[in-house]
Write a structure and sequence with these properties.
single chain; alpha+beta; Immunoglobulin-like; 3 domains; five-stranded mixed sheet; four-stranded antiparallel sheet; 17 helices; 9 strands; 57% helix; PQ-loop_rpt; membrane
Length: 453
């Protein structure tokens, strides 16, 4: 090889061309190199290998570097070839079929066997499971037919043997469903409860503005709600940061970013809406209400956890993606407990005055529709494990609905006849008492002696 490079010094430029130009040109240049070697040094007239005898002067550093670069050029040309499908995501009906296209981006220099496989043979099968690729094959596109047998989620992937060709992009996420109509209905239901939850903040703000008072609205609920939505926004926005999203994809190479644009909008909108309610708590009549010591202790504990996590991120013990996951777990615990202070406060006051029932109607609507969507998707995709196998999401939605039902009972059954709330040091109660007493027992009017006459 050193003799070849000494005699044909122009071959040293092959690696430069190989690195600077496109895949096809690099492949042609490498083929040219092999043809030159074959014709000039391995033809019958060159079987006499005396000219290629080992000579000390051929083993110079320059020649060795040239040999190394030539070998790298040939290997990189092989690695640059890759396979990919014409789509990454596919929706297929049960008992239906479709055809995909598997494309080779470059010719290969050695015979390669492609193995097509799925994770669940009972859900999805292909018409071919093996494709032989040779250097002499001029076809760079292969049709692959898929057959759906049952509803669910599956993954079609391609592996190359020997593994010298890039196949990391040769996969398709397949969703098999019973009905397109059910899928459309699920999308509509999703948007309806998204709107219901988004506008559920405004009835309470309107109630506060109308009464010019926040008496009856529990401050622990507002404080926990604000912290929870801030953490939820951090998680949603964080997964759209390129570096963090890259970490997520590296952990889930064939998955999708779970955060959609509407998730970011909802969480940020919820933070601003809750902040407006907090401002109302400072501006309007509030009596002696304040955040309780219990709520302050809980939020301090959450703050300590977040501070420790930030230190771990700084020390590179965990990455930002792990930090966001822990923030989402804290948000889940807040969702579990945030309604309790308001329900207890209503019970102590024996009244729901100041607590907007419109907020509860919208929250109840969103919760019921979210559970309905989960059930529709579970049937349509045969994915009941998402409902009962992972109880977190379903349980939180169900718990929210249960609290809404409790608030309905408090408002319309338990305390429906209460016109005012007996709660100490509430100025609003004193004002309502004075108005009621003045209407029932009007005070005598002081008149002068002239008026009496």
């Amino acid at each position: 090889m050193c003799y070849i490079l000494c005699k044909y010094k122009q071959l040293q430029y092959v690696i430069i061309v190989h690195m600077l130009f496109g895949l096809q040109l690099r492949q042609r240049m490498c083929a040219f190199v092999f043809n030159v070697i074959k014709k000039k040094f391995f033809s019958p007239s060159h079987f006499n290998l005396q000219p290629m005898a080992v000579r000390p002067e051929n083993f110079t550093m320059r020649n060795l570097v040239r040999v190394a670069f030539l070998l790298v050029a040939c290997s990189v040309s092989q690695i640059c070839a890759s396979f990919s499908f014409n789509t990454k995501d596919l929706v297929l009906l049960v008992n239906d079929s479709t055809t995909l296209t598997l494309t080779l981006t470059d010719n290969v220099l050695r015979n390669t066997t492609l193995i097509l496989s799925t994770n669940h043979k009972d859900l999805l099968t292909t018409n071919v499971t093996k494709i032989e690729v040779t250097n002499s094959t001029g076809t760079n596109v292969w049709p692959v037919e898929l057959f759906g047998h049952d509803a669910g989620h599956d993954l079609l992937k391609v592996d190359a043997f020997p593994p010298s060709i890039k196949c990391s992009d040769a996969f398709v996420r397949v969703t098999l469903q019973h009905s397109n109509e059910l899928a459309l209905f699920s999308v509509i239901v999703g948007w309806v409860y998204f709107v219901a939850w988004s506008i559920s903040f405004y009835p309470q703000m309107y109630e506060n503005w109308r009464r010019k008072s926040v008496v009856g609205l529990n401050f622990d609920f507002i404080a926990l709600n604000l912290v929870g939505f801030i953490l939820y926004s951090m998680f949603n926005v964080g997964l759209w940061i390129p570096e963090i999203e890259k970490d997520y994809i590296s952990r889930n190479p064939r998955g999708l970013n779970p955060v959609q644009l509407n998730d970011i909008f909802f969480s940020i909108h919820a933070v601003f809406a809750t902040l407006i309610t907090v401002i109302q708590c400072y501006c309007y009549e509030k009596g002696d209400q304040q955040v309780s010591r219990t709520a302050k202790s809980i939020m301090s504990f959450y703050g300590l956890i977040i501070a420790v996590l930030l230190v771990l991120v700084y020390l590179q013990k965990i990455v930002w993606l792990d930090f966001l996951y822990y923030c989402s777990y804290i948000k889940l615990t807040i969702t579990l407990i945030k309604y309790i202070p308001q329900a207890v406060m209503n019970y102590k006051r024996k009244s729901t005055i100041g607590w907007s029932i419109g907020n509860i109607f919208l929250d109840f609507t969103g919760g019921i529709l979210s559970i309905l969507q989960m059930i529709i998707n579970a049937y349509n995709y045969n994915d009941w494990a998402s409902v009962f196998g992972d109880p977190t999401k379903f349980g939180l939605g169900l718990l929210s609905v249960i609290f809404d039902i409790l608030f309905f009972l408090q408002h319309y059954v338990f305390y429906s006849g209460v016109n005012y709330a007996e709660f100490e040091n509430y100025n609003e109660v004193e004002v309502e008492d004075e108005v009621t007493n003045s209407e029932e027992h009007p005070k005598p009017t002081d008149k002068s002696d002239d008026q009496i006459c």
